[in-house]
Amino acid sequence: MATLIGCQYYYLLFLLWFLSSLTFFLDTRFMFLRMKVLLFCNRPMSTSMGIHADFPTRHMLALAFHS
Questions:
Q1: Nearest to 61 by CA among 33, 29, 38
Q2: DSSP 41
Q3: CB-neighbour burial class of residue 25 (10 A; exposed 0-12, middle 13-18, buried 19+)
Q4: Where in the chain are the domains?
Q5: What span, in angstroms and rounded, lies between the C-alpha atoms of 50 and 47?
Q6: 0.70 surpassed by pTM
Q7: pLDDT in tens, 53-67
Q8: Where would you find the membrane-spanning parts of this chain (predicted)?
Q9: Residue range 17-37, pLDDT digits in tens
């Protein structure tokens, strides 16, 4: 009986660890995809400003991640 309870305890502990790892992985992947879509949709139309053309995008991302 004690062995069965121990097995169930470790099974539930493993299940909790697995689900938390899975949700963390999916959350980081969706955040990465959301950032890529945001960067793609917020591209400047002209490249005349060079590397400073995407400043509003970087500023918006900084505000989004610090809120």
A1: 38
A2: H
A3: exposed
A4: 20-40+55-67
A5: 6
A6: no
A7: 555 666 666 666 665
A8: 12-33
A9: 999 999 998 888 888 888 888
